[in-house]
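Worked example 3 (structure in, sequence out).
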């Protein structure tokens, strides 16, 4: 079981690194990776001008079991919202914020699907 967990973590980390690189190519500045607040975690927080974006990254090795973005449920959304609120308060952010989902499928080459404004 331990090696499966490690492989899962490596898969997730690979996806997050690819997503962060992709966002930088799109002109975003990465402010934080793996931001934690209580039991919530935001995979990537980026900024572009006056927009703060909280990004949930979902990674799969194939799309055999459905698309990665389908794994974001309402409980996960609530956790993300609470972490985002904490970060906004902590930073004194006064501008717009958005929630995106980036799904990464680790095929060769990897496929990145960016869903902007995924939920509110």
């Amino acid at each position: 079981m331990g090696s499966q967990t490690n492989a899962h973590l490596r898969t997730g980390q690979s996806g997050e690194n690819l997503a962060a690189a992709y966002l930088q190519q799109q002109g975003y500045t990465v402010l934080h990776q793996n931001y934690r607040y209580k039991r919530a975690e935001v995979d990537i927080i980026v900024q572009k001008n006056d927009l703060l974006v909280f990004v949930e990254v979902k990674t799969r090795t194939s799309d055999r079991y459905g698309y990665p973005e389908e794994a974001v449920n309402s409980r996960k959304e609530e956790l993300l919202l609470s972490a985002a609120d904490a970060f906004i308060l902590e930073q004194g952010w006064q501008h717009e914020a958005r929630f995106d989902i980036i799904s990464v499928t680790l095929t060769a080459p990897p496929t990145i699907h960016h869903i902007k404004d995924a939920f509110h």
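Notes: The chain has two helices and five strands. The longest helix spans residues 2-25.
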